[in-house]
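Figure S4 source data
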Amino acid sequence: MEVASEPTLHVTDLGRRNPLDIEIFTLCDAAADYQGRLNILGVFDTIFASQMPAMHPFCSAALRMRFQMIERGQHSLTLHIVDDDGNLVVPAIEGAFSVEIPGNSQIASANLILNLGQLRFKNYGEYAINLAIDSRQEATLPFWVREPPKG
């Protein structure tokens, strides 16, 4: 029987990246893009609600993505916010963005902020924000709606 060896990392491999690299994908109280800097306030993964149905007044989904030269041009983006059965909490959020690589650079970053107001939840449980770019799912961000701790 032959045992597979661990893959070897060579120094030349260190600079290689996947074409799309999601550096940050988080749910927070608020976010802003200021001169290419992503400012994030109050990262969380749990919404506490004393009764169901519940409404969360405001939050933001914040993303920082890095692109390579091959990804220049127009792209589509779709976000689905779903419950643990895969049902949409709100209709799909769709948009488009353009990737431009400045000067002699080979990579560029982009910040995306989605402000979410008046989110309504029918049940306690696990939820997720699913991110698709060009109709391909790239990331999932889980979060929970729970009863507040007693005490």
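Figure S5 source data
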Amino acid sequence: MSRLPVRLGSFVIAFAGCLALGCGGDDGGGGGADGGGVDGGAALTCASLTLCTYAEVTQYFTPITAPAGGAIADGQYRLAWVETGRADDDGRLADLEALEIRGGQFRMSGGPRGDLGTWSTSGTDLTLHTTAYCDLSAPDGDADNTWTYRYTATPTELRIYDTGSSGASTWDIVRVWKRMGAADEACALVAAVPTTPGESAACWASNCFCAYAVNTTLPAASCPF
């Protein structure tokens, strides 16, 4: 299965300061009205929204609805859960990630490495073009990578479709992003993971951590990979 353009480093779990409730950073509200590639204010940078965590979300085997396109709202999102068309994937975990969309730009993070770039839509296709890599909140070199996915957007949700494959079999995978009211929701972990698709960001290690920053530097000590 291909993944969205965020480059995560190898895990070195050595931090015990932030347990199930996580530890936060600077407050930051969600963005404005529909984005759709329209200028939404100041340009995004690596420091715009940074998330580093060992938390994960659950994959659910469930019927997959067809992509419907739509206007993508500017704002800050977090990966809430993943839907899969293959039974073998049910209950597996995926990395918790954060996504900010502003104007025609996106910033994706979830570990020490992340992506900054531009996006566009055509019908039910969403194209992400990574123009730079980020090392936590700092720039980490230029990039020139492009991915196209199908998608569905509502004012509060962005569903990005991918395809898994094994031998001759293929199936849909949908990453469900929920628009946040404030950036600290990125580290709002659930006490109990639901058995049907729903908010499922949780820690599966006793020394889990979750830290974020908005328009400032996230210290390396907050991301002990």
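The longest strand covers residues 138-154. The chain is about 0% helix and 45% strand.
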